[in-house]
Write a structure and sequence with these properties.
alpha/beta, two-stranded antiparallel ribbon, 12 strands, flat
Length: 455
């Protein structure tokens, strides 16, 4: 076996260099803008200005390094990447301010509270642009990591169906190694073992992982739960994969819970994945309700001319009501009336435009202001739909208000299958946060403006 260590792919190395250069360029540009645009009448001399800018730069770079903003595993990941950048610059501002105060350089505050926040904004913007470029490349089949999945057929099917339909993950499952099923548990299989799972070829069993990884040059191996998945075997597999230059990805269970609800709790040296119970009440949800109503009201005020024009166009098109009433199930199973623009214009150019850009759904904002809906949440189901979720999914879905927008809208809208939309709803409910709401709102704006039904 070779002594090759894990090295990133060529596109990953290029992306790392691009990110590093952009971050340093944004920091230098912010310093330059503040240095040229700020001219105190009394205070720092030119030499002192240079010293302050150098100190701010060094503190910022150190803070970025400590927060692991350049960690290859989070580059292009989105929310986690942005959180680390914000934390890094907040710590940098605090450290630079304390240092300036202790040295008596009070005049340096304009640089500290000017250059560093400006660098934060520029850095976030540059990272967002780079991430968009990577996502576009992934949609064209580039900038993807080749992954070998190891596990039972059922769990493998679940992972492959999720992963290969999402470019954002950066994964491309190109091979499967199936764990053998005990004979007493194996169902009748007249045609033998499957040759492919969801069009992904089965290359062997879990006894052939290292050989298959080295022959096919996989970038990573995703290990799913199975009866043969022991701690000792995973440690041995990790060492062997390091020798062939591949990462090991471990999925304890296939769940849709991420973020602050998951904790690593050590027990006698063994890391356990602890999942806290979700909370659907309390101060955070009260604040969400208030913010949703205020934002919906502000949006209605801004778009009121558009609503008037659309209503007039529908009225002139022919007889019938401008608004249609639809009964939907809200929080705690209560039925409410949702309003939408009449949709019989769909055959014409105006109707297609309204549907493509979701203009026909804008009256739902009145439901948000009235408190029947949230600005962000799961889809508003019809009366019998929650029963289809099973396993408590329908009950879980009804503990929060349905949303004007949500993961279902930015994830594909009407092109999503019922199962995919249901999974998106439950994922939102399980992992809700203000940051998630803000991200969904920002992406919804882009989806609506572009008229993209498969964002």
């Amino acid at each position: 076996m070779s002594d090759r260590i894990v090295r990133p792919a060529r596109w990953e190395r290029r992306y790392e260099v691009s990110v590093l250069c952009c971050d340093l360029l944004c920091l230098a540009l912010a310093n330059l803008i503040v240095a040229v645009g700020y001219h105190p009448t009394a205070g720092l001399a030119d030499g002192q200005r240079v010293a302050v800018l150098v100190v701010c730069t060094v503190v910022a770079v150190l803070s970025i390094s400590v927060q692991k903003v350049w960690d290859r595993r989070i580059l292009g990941s989105g929310p986690e990447e942005y959180r680390r950048i914000v934390r890094a610059y907040l710590y940098a501002v605090a450290a630079a301010a304390i240092l300036a105060y202790s040295l008596g350089a009070d005049q340096a505050r304009a640089y500290i509270f000017g250059a560093l926040p400006l660098a934060l904004v520029l850095t976030l913007t540059a990272r967002k642009v780079l991430r968009i470029m990577v996502l576009r490349a992934r949609k064209r089949g580039r900038c993807l990591r080749s992954v070998l999945v190891v596990g039972n057929a059922e769990e493998t099917h679940e992972l492959v169906s999720r992963t290969n339909g999402s470019e954002e993950s950066g994964w491309k499952v190109e091979g499967v190694c199936l764990a053998p099923v005990p004979e007493e548990d194996a169902p009748p299989a007249p045609h033998g073992s499957p040759v492919a799972i969801d069009d992904v070829p089965v290359l062997g069993t879990d006894a052939d992982i290292i050989r298959i990884t080295e022959v096919h040059k996989f970038d990573a191996v995703a290990l799913l739960p199975s009866d043969r998945c022991s701690c000792a075997r995973m440690r041995r597999l990790e060492r062997e994969l390091e020798g062939v230059g591949a990462d090991l990805l471990i999925a304890p269970v296939l769940i849709d819970v991420v973020g602050p609800r998951l904790y690593i709790s050590p027990l006698a040296g063994l890391p356990l994945l602890q999942m806290s119970a979700p909370r659907y009440s309390g101060p955070a949800w009260v604040v969400k309700n208030i913010v949703d109503r205020i934002l919906a009201l502000l949006i209605l005020v801004v778009i009121s001319p558009v609503l008037v024009l659309v209503a007039a166009a529908i009225r002139f098109d022919g007889p019938g009501p401008v608004l249609l009433r639809r009964d939907r199930v809200g929080r705690d199973g209560r039925t409410f009336t949702m309003y939408v623009f009449r949709g019989d214009l769909e055959a014409g150019r105006l109707g297609r435009f309204l549907r493509r850009h979701s203009v026909d759904e804008l009256p739902e904002l009145f439901n948000v202001v009235g408190g029947d809906m949230a600005l962000v949440g799961p889809r508003a189901p019809v009366g019998s739909e929650p029963v289809r979720y099973g396993d408590g999914g329908g009950v879980c879905r009804l503990v929060v208000k349905p949303g004007f927008t949500g993961l279902w809208r930015i994830g594909g809208r009407s092109n999503l299958s019922w199962e995919e939309a249901a999974r998106a709803d439950l994922r939102y409910i399980e992992n809700w946060s203000f940051a998630m709401d803000l991200l969904i709102l920002c992406r919804t704006f882009g989806v609506v403006v572009r008229g993209d039904r498969t964002c």
